[in-house]
Design a protein that fits this description.
3 domains, Helix Hairpins, 12 strands, five-stranded antiparallel sheet, single chain, five-stranded mixed sheet, rod-shaped, 18% strand, Beta-Lactamase, alpha+beta, Heat Shock Protein 90
Length: 470
């Protein structure tokens, strides 16, 4: 029985592409963050330098030439007329001692749009500051106007940081568009590269699956003689296949040779015991009969092993049209000689399969005998057949002890005997179902078992149908 399928997961190329895309996306995010941080710092320094240059222009002009507040007013008005400020900036000069007169030059910015403007105009210390305005953050610089150590007034320069935010938004949009296009192109190239790189692994997987399906250990998977990691893996796998092929071949030879060599001494020993039977009586004759029975059992095991060895070596069976109903009824007649059971046959008429008639009868007789062993005298055994998708399904069902779920994957293994089988047939060899499976496979068929929901089990043999009657 095949192992239960594992939980489905994403294909390896897709997983690698996803990881590759996530790494690129993370890299782009880091680059975008660093770029925006650098751009913001640069724009803020530029704005500060612009305000500092305006302050220096005023200090080297009106603030340097004025000796009193009257001269400061005249010089300031002249300076304001000669130095128009760009949009979003403003200069405010408070004249000390002139009833707090404030001269301004605004490029679309009002001093009173920010918090505590009077405190800024009366500040005696120069410093940078940031306030919130009606259109966002405002960057400002306060500079006291001094003449001979006397403060004639205060210069306040301020500018909106909105252009910085606008520039950064445009930068982020550009980075986002470029990153999306770059990520898409990188993913496309990455998928192509990953698929190209994993193509040898895909071919190896297909070859390994074919070897597993056919059981042909003579096949090899190394192709092209690549010297990379995949090529070395393929070569190592081929070496392992060669060793396995040699080991199985040696095992088959040993099994065939041993089985063949054991047939003659067993036959001779049985013949000699039969000659002695006429000279013995009583308990000695019973002991001799028991010994003969064991020799017969050993001979059957040897014949089974020899048959398995021949099948392993690829022995070809006859393939001819066989009427399914006749084979089922012949198996039923043989089963009636084994033990009384409630036996029935429901065969689809005119159903023929391509098979070896003798070996197919052996398979069905084996399955029926197995069902008899696992049912009591009141047990029911049904033999049925039907046509399905160009194949014939032959079923042997019983309502016996059933098969524990843990034993289902092993019942077709050689020499495997489950708990119920040991109880039903203590002298069994565990080769019956293995021989049945090998014979069905040799006839291009398959065999499977399904536990009945209530009790018992159903063995299903699938064989190719034949449209031509013999």
């Amino acid at each position: 029985m095949p192992a239960a399928p594992s939980r489905q997961s994403l294909p390896l190329p897709l997983r690698l592409a996803v990881v590759y895309g996530l790494l690129i996306a993370a890299t782009l995010l880091v680059v975008a963050g660093v770029t925006v941080a650098i751009a913001r710092a640069h724009l803020e320094r530029t704005l500060d330098a612009q305000l500092r240059g305006t302050a220096q222009s005023y200090q080297q002009g009106p603030a340097l030439r004025a000796r009193n507040t009257s001269e400061l007013v005249v010089q300031t008005r002249r300076w304001l007329g000669e130095h128009p400020l760009p949009a979003g900036e403003m200069a405010a000069i408070r004249i000390a001692g002139d009833r707090g007169r404030v001269l301004t030059s605004a490029g679309g910015l009002d001093l009173f749009e920010i918090q505590t403007p009077r405190l800024l105009l009366t500040d005696a210390h120069g410093h940078w500051w940031t306030r919130s305005g009606s259109e966002g953050a405002v960057r400002g610089l306060t500079v006291p106007i001094l003449s001979d150590g006397v403060q004639l007034g205060t210069l306040v320069l301020l500018a909106y940081e909105k252009p910085i935010a606008t520039t950064l938004s445009a930068l982020l949009f550009g980075i986002g568009v470029a990153s999306a296009i770059g990520l898409l192109l990188a993913l496309l190239v990455g998928v192509l590269v990953v698929r190209r790189s994993l193509r040898p692994l895909t071919q190896m997987t297909a070859e390994v699956a074919a070897i597993e399906a056919t059981g042909d250990l003579s096949r090899r998977i190394a192709a092209g003689g690549n010297s990379d990691e995949v090529g070395r893996l393929a070569s190592a796998f081929d070496r392992m296949l060669a060793r396995l092929e040699g080991a199985f071949a040696a095992q088959r030879r040993f099994l065939a040779d041993a089985s063949h060599e054991l047939r003659t001494p067993l036959t001779v020993a049985r013949g000699q015991l039969e000659l002695l039977a006429g000279e013995l009586d009583g308990d000695k004759r019973s002991s001799l009969a028991l010994t003969t029975d064991e020799l017969d059992r050993m001979a059957r095991i040897v014949e089974d092993l020899l048959l398995l060895a021949r099948l392993d070596e690829g022995a070809e069976l006859r393939r001819e049209p066989v009427e399914v109903e006749l084979v089922l009824r012949e198996a039923l007649l043989r089963a009636m000689l084994l033990a009384p059971r409630d036996l029935s046959v429901e065969a689809e008429p005119d159903l023929y399969v391509l098979a070896d008639p003798d070996r197919l009868l052996q398979v069905l007789t084996n399955l029926v005998a197995n069902a008899i062993q696992h049912t009591d005298q009141s047990g029911r055994i049904a033999l049925t057949s039907q046509r399905q998708n160009g194949r014939a399904l032959l079923r042997v069902s019983d309502n016996g002890r059933g098969i524990p779920p843990a034993e289902l994957p092993h019942i077709f293994e050689r020499f495997y005997r489950g708990r119920n089988a040991k109880a039903a047939t203590p002298d069994g060899s565990g080769l019956g179902l293995a021989i049945a499976a090998s014979l069905v496979t040799a006839m291009n068929g398959s065999i499977a078992v399904d536990p009945t929901p209530a009790r018992g089990a159903t063995f299903t043999v699938s064989l190719p149908t034949s449209e031509n009657a013999p």
